[in-house]
Amino acid sequence: MRPASAALAAMLVVGVVAGVAAAEPRKLVHTSKAMGTSVQITIWSDDEAAAAEGAKAVFAEMNRLDRLMTTWTPDSEVSQINAGAGTKAVKVSDETFTVIARAVEISKASRGLFDITVGAYGGLWKFDEDMDGTLPDAKDVAARKKLVNWKDIVLDKRRRTVKLRKKGMRITLGGIAKGYAVDRAAQTLVEAGLSDFILQVGGDMYVSGHKGAAPWVVGIRDPRGPRDQSFAVAPVEDHAFSTSGDYERGFVKDGVRYHHILDPRTAQPARATRSVTVYARDAFTADAWSKVLFIMGAKAAMPLVEKLPDFEAVFVDADNTVHISSGLRDKLKILTPPTPGI
User: Along the chain (342 residues), what's the average pLDDT of each consecutive run of 10 residues?
Assistant: First the structure.
């Protein structure tokens, strides 16, 4: 090779290497659908291939868990439990048993405000794919209410079985399974060597690490504003930041908002809160407790929030007033008052 050509080739090689070395970490976003909602993974990395593989593994893991815990397919473990209500105990996987046992634990701690046996209202209150804006007959709701009692869930840890005592009972893990899945998905990303990310599944979120030298800053959706509008933001690191709201699955009829978070005491949509966002160490905890706090309302729930370790909450109450627990007051920035409305 002539000297000039050799010099040119060397320059090209150096340029390619320099170009590769100059790749900067950036946001890499992957989206999909799982567990009946949207999934978004935002990864801070300079390795696009690793991020894509990590996201692919997350989507696979969430779909696997959904197949175990959904009520929308007859062969899931939860559907089998419901089919055997009043007649037999059903053996389930370690994961399904773990989620149901945690649900029962939170039911006991919340004195029944969290109750997965509200699945009995399925087909009466219609807030999922079946939502058509109709209201159930009061007599039908009263009849189903007799089937709602977390104490009628029988768990056998040694045999790993679950039984519902009464025929007609049904459980739903819609208020807790996504939190468990978010934690499993976060672990999947960490095991893939990805430590800086935001993982969001519907209203459930886990934030890991940083965005370079800066913290991740995440928003709280305005309950009556446009879908992409936040009324407040906060820096979050290595914590869940999960929201339950009355706006995601519901409708307004005759000037009244009806939504999917049912108060087991009344068999009606809870009325004290528009949204509650929980800051907790893991999404499993945040997901379930956000429902409890939503039903309780800010006034009754805030003393409990202040007692729980590594646990904070932000409420928008029924009057559109914002309530912030003590550990978030110096972190949360209110961008604008929440939008008024029904």
Answer: 46 43 85 95 98 98 97 97 98 98 98 98 93 96 98 98 98 97 98 98 97 97 96 98 95 97 97 98 97 98 97 98 98 98 96
Closest CA to 81 of 161, 180, 152: 161
Please tell us whether the domain made up of 26-67+176-334 is placed in CATH 3.40.440.10. no
Integer angstrom CA distances of residue 91 from 11, 154, 157, 215, 277:
66, 12, 10, 44, 35
Neighbours of 33 (CB within 10 A): 12
Give the CA angle between residues 182, 187, 189 to the nearest 5°: 95
Query: Where in the chain are all domains bearing CATH 1.10.3980.10?
Result: 73-164
Count Cα neighbours of 286 within 13 Å in the Cβ-side half-sphere: 31
CATH assignment of 73-164, given 1.10.10.60, 3.90.226.10, 1.10.3980.10, 3.30.565.10? 1.10.3980.10
